[in-house]
Amino acid sequence: MRRDLLAGVLLSSMACSHAPPPSAETKVERRDDWLLALKSDLERIASNDGFQGQFRVLHGGKPEIDNAVGDTTCLALGAGRRLLAAVAVGLLVDDGKLGWDDRLERRLPAAAGTSFSGLTLANLLTDSAGLGASTGATPETRLDDAAKVPLRAPPGTLVDPADERPWVLVERVVAEVSRETFARFVESRIAGPAGMKATFVGPGGGCPDDARGTTTLDDQFRLIDALRAGKLVSPQTRAALWLPRLPLGPGSEVAYGFFVRTRDPQQAVGISAEGTAAAYELWLDPAGTDALVLLGKTPTKTARGIRTALGEFYALPPGQPHASSPARRPAPR
User: 42 CB contacts (<8 Å, ≥6 apart)?
Assistant: First the structure.
């Protein structure tokens, strides 16, 4: 029987090899013990590391972990913005207005004559555009500067998930093809149908200081529900978005706007922030109902302990190669 990805608890037995397998009742009791220990760990980690934010895990359609720590107002959209951009492209693909392999020079006139002209949407969506070095105070200004210099690698050969600049290009393509601003497109075609009333791409919702956007934990789960229910993109386009495209390392690949983590027959798709970016994690089981979301006002490096504890308990497959491996938690005695 297939083991649910996010709910596969990492249990190890101290019993002798000839002992009978634990009963269903014993497994439930052991899981309850582990869950109680996990909640205690999360409270301790958040207190010690100064994490401020929220995290929730749905298992079997119900919240098993649901915590808010510190100031949770104006949580940054962060890496969730690229998820919205990928879904926006998927909607335009469904509309017949875009193709995954469309070259930028066809869809974005401003790209003609720049180093971006030969890039495809697929290159942008898989973090493999290979943009050259640039300077600037914002992703937008760094992108404009990069257009003046050669690519640092052939498109599709160098995967760099930390580079925000290709996602600015994706947003510009969406705006050009849809004939409306990216923010307006997200509002009318994604946030509205999904019921995301507190997500803003840019200043809004009483959070004028966050120019990159804000969201809420509830809205991120509404987005997950809308994707699963087919309220946004078609099942065929959703499958295309979640299909592994390029390798990141053992057990980790990049798809169109999503990362895919695999362990044996299990798979998770989602988004993860790294480094100094605002903490953001969204992972779901594409074949089930389990999901995990973490949002933080603090950097993702501050949330690493919480993310590690959640990933260890829920058996989330390994992350990108540069991510630290979670330490094994001892089995309860």
Answer: 55, 65, 67, 306, 309, 310
